[in-house]
Amino acid sequence: MAGQKVRWGILATGGIAATFTADLVDLPDAEVVAVASRSQESAQAFAERFGIARAYGDWASLARDEEVDVVYVATPHTAHRVAAGLCLEAGRNVLCEKPFTLNVREAQELVALARSNGRFLMEAMWMYCNPLIRRLKALVDDGAIGEVRSVQADFGLAGPFPPAHRLRDPQLGGGALLDLGVYPVSFAQLLLGEPSDVVARAQLSDEGVDLQTGALLSFGGGALASVHCSIVGGTATSASVTGSKGRIDVPYGFFFPDRFVLHRDGRDAEEFTADPADGPRASLRHEATEVMRALRAGETESPLVPLDGTLAVMRTLDAIRDRIGVRYPGEDAVDASSADEPVVTPA
């Protein structure tokens, strides 16, 4: 694949699929060659919009397309297990939107499928591919603020969202946690790893999804992370990392930051800023670039978004849902304590 364009297939035709595809077509080493939807009309309209050669009215046809190097799965997360699994079983490489799956059991199955078939698989956690977030992590890892003592991160939307909206629909895995809370949790675990204990509280809707959730994550060595998400109040959407020798503050939009400020004890504050060419959603391009780099290198997972890290985040999300009592239709009770046991969930 070295020196050749990476050929992409797009599975689903919603808003995030359109945004990602718009970025892909601007990358000189990427080519979008096929799109699939459950509706032929939707797939055809999407193909015409972006100049895509092949439009399929079913997912299986895209999965079988041997001229596709990697499939971007952009369905609602309740369909990730089925859609990504279909592609992996057919021999396609996969970039799957966040949250990776509905629960860790489904995530384990996808990871097992990818590894048994020797296929590339990555969660589309674009935050991890952002150059400024990577710089922040490098500073923390290098001891710029000493030993990390605490992490704070929040993501909230003001709404209000009516009961029929997807964010409040249990059938679509609705609620603040999976759609928004995955970012604060992923940020905390990027810096601290997997928590040893989880405490959580939530306000639930009449439909049984979380309108807002707060969690306290405990880590080895005494570090703590406070994470919050909401679909009933617009939060600062900021983050802060406090260490034994300083602090890093990330202002609004911490998961696609344009700057952060490093405060080191006894020194003037230092501001780190993004490349002016990186707009608010440039992380999508960085994410696509990382996928293509890994494919050309023959890697089956990205060191920036490793599958074990994705599984660890899913275990935490399951643990939080266990504490707040959120279950989705047809889902077995969430049990984080048995998350590592081999299970088989029908596709």
Question: Layout of helices and strands, plus pairs?
Answer:
Blueprint: E1 6-11, H1 15-24, E2 30-36, H2 40-50, E3 54-56, H3 59-64, E4 70-73, H4 80-89, E5 93-96, H5 104-117, E6 121-123, H6 131-141, E7 148-156, H7 176-192, E8 197-204, E9 210-218, E10 224-230, E11 239-243, E12 246-250, E13 259-264, E14 270-273, H8 283-296, H9 307-324
Parallel strand pairs: 1-2, 1-4, 2-3, 4-5, 5-6, 7-10
Antiparallel strand pairs: 7-11, 8-9, 9-10, 11-12, 12-13, 13-14
Helix pairs in contact: 4-5, 5-9, 7-9
Description:
By secondary structure, the chain is of the alpha/beta class. It has helices spanning 15-24, 40-50, 59-64, 80-89, 104-117, 131-141, 176-192, 283-296, 307-324, and strands spanning 6-11, 30-36, 54-56, 70-73, 93-96, 121-123, 148-156, 197-204, 210-218, 224-230, 239-243, 246-250, 259-264, 270-273. It has an eight-stranded mixed sheet with strand order 8-9-10-7-11-12-13-14, covered by helices on one side. A six-stranded parallel sheet has the order 3-2-1-4-5-6, with helices on both faces. A hairpin with a 2-residue loop joins strand 11 (239-243) and strand 12 (246-250).
> Looking at the structure, what is the overall shape?
globular
Q: Which strand order spans the largest sheet, edge to edge or round the barrel?
A: 8-9-10-7-11-12-13-14
Mean pLDDT score, rounded? 93
Extract low-pLDDT stretches. Answer: 333-347
Backbone CA Rg = 20 Å
Largest sheet: 8 strands, mixed
Number of helices: 9
User: Structural class of the secondary structure composition?
Assistant: alpha/beta
What's the order of the H and E elements? Answer: EHEHEHEHEHEHEHEEEEEEEHH
Helix content: 25-40%
Distance, first to last CA: 31 Å
Which range does the strand content fall in? 15-25%
